Amino acid sequence: MLAATTFLVALAHPLKAQRTLTGTVQDSRGGAVPFAVLELPAQKIGVQADDEGRFSLPLPAALAPTDSLSVSALGYARQRVPVPAGVTATLRLAALPVSLNEVVVRPGIAEWVGLLVGPTKHGGYQQNRLSRESNSGWQIARLCQPPTDGHLTAVRFFVKSSIGCSKVSMRAPFRVRIYAADGPDGSHGTDLLTTSVLAAATERGWVTVNLDRYGIEFPQQGVYVAMEWVYTSDEFLCTHTYTNPDTRQKSEGFTYGQVIAAARLPAAKSQTWYYTIKYGWLKMQSRSIAGPATIDDAAIQAQFHS
């Protein structure tokens, strides 16, 4: 029954725009910077570029003289520039030096931590209304904590297709993100994986991504492992009909890409968070109407090596 399936989606909210700024984000040599994020911090408005650095950012009618545009991307220095006066712009970012930590392999047992129970048939998280023109930067993350300090050697995500969608949409590339738990109150902080690492499913099940070469430390306090939905092609869009569980009315909507599966856990045990450019990181809250508070905990695991 569709009403029993819990999906949390990132909704696109239309803005009363004076104009729409379109263009590309490039590096110093004119190459595309994929999946760059453009934000108006004071307005809490932002969008993510596609895999070729192209973006479309609706600008509000009431821009203040002090408003500026923040442009950032993994592996590049963040830029803060005046809001371009025209309707098109080419924005440039400078690459940061890349340094990989030296990894010393010691005898030991590799161990998976994170969601260790099997995901349920229904439920999970997906991206709604992602397209070339609209991307909220949607991410789903889970805190993974090892028994002691060590190194992060791999991560994996349980991927499946959305109800009513073909397996093609399930094969959409997604980006792997790793964050230190050094933010306020142990929340998401420093980017630990500063290179864009894309992965994709070929079938329903676990998608494993080897990260051994990046030398990422895995402290006992844990790291946040995230799946980030990124736009690459319209072939991964899926139009479907859904039923509103409250009104029982049918409507047409569309989703993009894969679903990350989840297991229903008591709210106190869940370690799942979500992110949008507009609101930042928020911990998933229970949507239970009656009975014990439960949350769909994302099927994300991290491999620990001492």
Structural account:
- This protein is mainly β and 306 residues long.
- The protein folds into two domains: 76 residues, Carboxypeptidase-like, regulatory domain (Immunoglobulin-like); 198 residues, Jelly Rolls, CATH 2.60.120.
- Helices cover 1% and strands 44% of the residues.
- Strands 1, 9, 10, 12, 15, 16, 18, 19 and 24 form a nine-stranded mixed beta sheet that branches.
- The N terminus is likely disordered.
Write the layout of secondary structure elements.
Layout: E1 7-8, E2 17-26, E3 37-40, E4 45-48, E5 54-60, E6 68-72, E7 79-82, E8 88-92, E9 111-114, E10 124-128, E11 139-144, E12 150-160, H1 167-170, E13 174-180, E14 197-199, E15 205-210, E16 216-218, E17 223-229, E18 237-243, E19 250-260, E20 262-266, E21 272-276, E22 280-283, E23 294-298, E24 300-305
End-to-end Cα distance, whole Å, is 44 Å
Number of strands: 24
Order of helices and strands: EEEEEEEEEEEEHEEEEEEEEEEEE
Number of domains: 2
Rg result: 20 Å
CATH topology of the largest domain: Jelly Rolls
Largest sheet: 9 strands, mixed
- State the oligomer: single chain
Just give the CATH class of the largest domain: Mainly Beta
Report the CATH architecture of the largest domain: Sandwich
Question: What overall geometry do the principal axes of the alpha carbons give?
Answer: globular
Fraction in beta strands:
35-45%
Helix count from the secondary structure assignment = 1
As residue ranges, the low-confidence spans are 1-17
Question: Could you tell me the mean pLDDT?
Answer: 86
* Protein structure class: mainly beta
What proportion of the residues is helical, as a percent range?
A: under 10%
